[in-house]
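**Protein record**
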Amino acid sequence: MLNNIGLPGLLLIAVVVLVLFGRGKISSLMGEVGKGITSFKKGISEGEEENKRDEIKHVEDVHHADLPEHADQGAHPKTELKADKDRV
C-alpha cells in the first residue's frame, strides 16, 4: 500500500498536514523532536562512557586481586627460582 505513494502523494500529505496544524505548530513540534534526539544521543554517549569507566575499574580490581601479597616488595617467587637456576 505505501509503495505506491510516490513524490506527488508525499507532497499532498505535507500540504494537508500544514493546513491542518499550521506552520507554527509544526515548527514547534520539529523543535521538540530535535531536542529529544539531542537528549537521546547525549544519554547514549554518557552511558557508553560510564560503561567504559566501570569496565576499566573492574579490570583494575581483578588485576590487583590476582597479585600475591609480596608483589609490593618487587619480588616474584617464580622469578627468584629462575634466577637461582641461572646461578648454578
In short: Residues 68 and 76 are 8 Å apart (CA to CA). The mean pLDDT is 79. The helical segments are 6-21, 23-66, 77-87.
